[in-house]
Amino acid sequence: MGDELTFFFDSYALIEIYEKNPNFEKYAKVNAVTSYFQVYEVYHSLIRNGYSEEDIEDFFEFLQNLCIDLDFDWIPQSVKFRKENKKRELSYADCLGYVIARELNIRFLTGDKEFEDLPNVEFVKK
Q1: Average pLDDT by consecutive 10-residue portion of the chain (126 residues)?
Q2: Would strands 107-110 and 31-33 be described as parallel, antiparallel, or unpaired?
């Protein structure tokens, strides 16, 4: 895969795009992939923050098209990455997303400050 115009969108980035944060606007038009784990986090977060199922229905459908198949080998790599970065308090889903981006040779798009100084990260401030 690996091209400069493709990004792995973590849940933070997906929520900011949904909420039309101008800092994330340019990423709404790039090639993107994500995983079902990120979609789960996004759906949960949006519902928790007061959006109705009807509000997010179209976005939720759109996200399904971005989801990629997982490689079984990414699971132990993600666990190892999380263990190596224990002090950062990263979620399991974030660790998996970061490993996916690394393995696909694409940038990991996030606004999560815990990733700001890591390689292969496209960090965007809220």
Answers
A1: 80 96 93 97 96 96 96 98 95 96 97 96 92
A2: unpaired
Return the residue matching tokens 């979620």.
Answer: 91
CA angle, 122 as apex, 77 and 100 as ends, to 5°?
Answer: 25
Instruction: List, in sequence order, every beta strand (DSSP E) within the chain.
Output: 6-9, 31-33, 107-110, 121-123
* Structural domain boundaries, residue 58: 6-123
Q: How many domains does the chain have?
A: 1
Does 1 fall in a domain?
A: no
Beta bridge partners of 42: none
pLDDT of amino acid 76: 98
Q: Which pLDDT score is estimated for 3?
A: 57
Give a yes or no: residue 61 inside a domain. Answer: yes
